[in-house]
Design a protein that fits this description.
About 65% of the residues lie in helices and about 0% in strands. The chain is an all-alpha fold. β1 and β2 (about 155) form a beta hairpin. The radius of gyration is 20 Å and the shape is globular. α3 (about 85-110) runs antiparallel to α4 (about 115-135) and α6 runs antiparallel to α7. It starts with a helix and ends in a 5-residue tail after the last helix. It is built from 12 helices and 2 strands. The chain has one domain. A two-stranded antiparallel sheet has the order 1-2.
Length: about 350
């Protein structure tokens, strides 16, 4: 618990300290958001708002994670970073770098589209494949790797997959969720608040897996998770940075996270799901992101086959904007929906431990 608290506190402090300077710097160089021409009319006022705030989320989380471990090593209250934690941080930072390139091109060329889709996919694939292969390596003294090449829900199940098939599955999740967070990042504070709720779930899951670890006691329901505590520390470090960012991203936003933040956070959530062996539970832990992505898929499918749109505009949050809902109303109600998803996921996770 010391590491979790330290990581969250350090990242929160660092991010809060850096964010005003970044906002001023971005204003000075006119690194502002380019708004879609076909977007809701109310978004025109957001034109020029600084973007790339995800840079501070990443910096704050990195300082929080490694700083917490440095303090614990110096005080003798904990160990250094683990392989599982480092791999998830690699995915987090790597996806953020892809997003940074995308944001920079948007700003430099003054357009709402950045990297070409092919180049963006290549970047995501390089980082995703490196992570997916890495988590099947580096066994500890008990033979546990950061992840097994299997599907998982509350824990691993089914036969092992061929390594190539597992890498493709992991890459599908990484690309899917990083883009899902990107789609959700359309209203002030919406994606950040939803990510915070997901990270709280992974802190709880990591703590519980530590207390019921097969390393501590070989009980019937123990978890074969390599580094559950350090995964909770990673989640806490990013949580602190996201809370700091939300302070400045709350309506009316002074800064946007951009693809730098959304791709990084989407990748991080998948990395935590894979290393905590809760891949399919992610559909609930990230329930809001799933719904918003499905809204886009349904809209595109309906228009291609029938020529009609089911929603006034996709993603889903913009549909409600065009129906007259206030932006803050949409954000708060969507946070409530995400909270219900997360509560359901945690309830399912604990279900097998309930007395019968």
């Amino acid at each position: 618990m010391i590491g979790i608290s330290l990581a969250a506190a350090l990242s929160l402090i660092v991010s809060m300290a850096l964010m005003p300077s970044l906002i001023n710097l971005l204003y000075r160089f006119k690194f502002g958001q380019e708004v879609r021409d076909d977007g809701p009319e109310g978004h025109k006022t957001k034109q020029g708002t600084p973007t790339m705030g995800g840079v501070v989320i990443i910096l704050g989380a990195v300082v929080g994670y490694f700083g917490a471990h440095a303090v614990m090593l110096l005080t003798g209250t904990g160990a250094g970073p683990t392989v599982s934690g480092l791999l998830v941080m690699f995915l987090f930072v790597g996806m953020g770098c892809v997003g940074f390139l995308d944001d920079f091109i948007k700003i430099y060329k003054r357009r709402s589209l950045g990297l070409r889709s092919g180049a963006k996919m290549v970047g995501q694939a390089v980082v995703g494949v490196g992570f997916a292969y890495g988590v099947t390596q580096f066994p500890n003294g008990y033979g546990y790797t950061p992840a097994a090449p299997q599907l998982s829900f509350l824990r691993d199940f089914g036969p092992p997959l061929m390594i190539g098939l597992f890498v493709l599955w992991a890459l599908f999740l990484i690309v899917g969720f990083s883009n899902a967070v990107n789609l959700t990042d359309g209203l002030d504070g919406l994606a950040t608040g939803a990510v915070i709720l997901s990270l709280v779930a992974y802190i709880i899951i990591g703590n519980w897996q530590l207390r019921q670890s097969c390393v501590e006691a070989l009980t019937a329901n123990c978890y074969q998770v390599r580094d559950p505590l350090d995964l909770a520390v990673v989640a806490a470090a990013v949580l602190g940075a996201c809370i700091a960012f939300l302070w400045f991203n709350a309506p009316p936003a002074k800064i946007f996270m951009g693809d730098t933040g959304s791709l990084a956070l989407g990748g991080l959530i998948v990395g935590l799901a894979i290393t905590t062996r809760t891949q399919l539970l992610l559909l609930l832990i990230g329930g809001l992101f799933v719904i918003i992505t499905l809204s886009v898929m349904v809209q595109i499918t309906s228009f291609r086959f029938t020529g009609k749109r089911i929603l006034r505009m996709a993603p889903l949050q913009h549909h409600f904007e065009l129906r007259g809902w206030a932006e803050t109303t949409i954000v708060i109600r969507f946070w409530i929906i995400q909270g219900l998803f997360v509560a359901t996921a945690i309830g399912l996770f604990y279900l097998e431990w309930m007395p019968r």
